[in-house]
Amino acid sequence: MPSHVHLVLRPETRRPAPEPLRVDLRPILLVGIAVFVVAGIVCGLLMILDVTALRHVLICVAGVSLGLVGLVWEKKHRADYRGV
Q: Between the CA atoms of 72, 74, 77 and 82, what dihedral angle is there, to the nearest 10 degrees?
């Protein structure tokens, strides 16, 4: 096995990187959005009862928003990462 110094000085001697896994990101994003929606409902109910602050609800809103942005990105770049 070549040393780190050898690999830094001669990067062409490295083994090629493995191919990335082809995965479907939609289920992962949808589960994340669902978790943030449930957490937002719970935090909203707790906020009504004066147990938690508005910032917890806003964090859940941000999570849902970022998940939706992720779904839009996934739809736009589906062919790139899935090879479709």
A: -160
Q: Is residue 68 part of a domain?
A: yes
Is 84 contained in some domain? no
How far, in Å, are 1, 11, 19, 40, 72 from residue 16 at the CA level? 15, 10, 9, 45, 32
Closest listed residue to residue 36, CA positions, set 59, 3, 4, 7: 59
Rg (CA), the chain: 21
Identify the domain containing residue 34 by its residue range: 26-79
pTM over the 0.70 mark? yes
Q: Give the residue-averaged pLDDT of 16-37.
A: 90
Take residue 56 and report the two structure tokens written for it: 């917890």
Total tally of structural domains belonging to the chain: 1
